[in-house]
Design a protein that fits this description.
mainly beta; about 5% helix; about 15% strand
Length: about 90
Amino acid sequence: IVAKPGELLKIRLKNGLAPGPGTEACSTKDKLGFFLNPDAICELNTTNLHVHGLHVSPEGNADNIFVTLHSGEEHLYEIQIPENHMGGT
């Protein structure tokens, strides 16, 4: 990926990982929100996208580390690179 200062970088990421083991056990929670099966491995195959070296916004559809993609989900990241961003490799 090559991007220059001032450009809007658009990346569509799709999580093509299969659901992890324990998916069924993780869908049922008690009244307090705890999983009913504490031995289940929950949310094993989630993913996201995060960049290092770019001084960009962490909000919304940009470099937001709190976006979580479950199996089969996709997300469009839109990262605005500031006009005054220093060059890099």
